[in-house]
Amino acid sequence: MTNVRTGDAIVAESFLDVRAKLLEIAATLDRIDRASDGATLGDRAGNQRDLLLQATEILLSDGPDRAARLQQLFSRQYEPDWRDQFGFNEAERV
Length: 94
Known about the structure:
This protein is an all-alpha fold. It has four helices and no strands. The chain has two domains: 39 residues; 37 residues, no CATH class. The mean pLDDT is 89.
């Protein structure tokens, strides 16, 4: 028999932890905005900030697959030759 928790139970168990994480995210975005003071962020920082904003859009969307979509957002695309790109070859795997 599977132990299935209700949505109410999950909210009750997780609320304070999730609230703290959301406050941390909001505070980080606020610090970024204050620090940049309207200036354009560098390429890497700007791209990373954009990823964070895209992540918040995923969080606000509907569907049971938000975690999977976030993981995909922050992951590299699969490339068949990744071993060559990172300097791994057959001889080194032994």
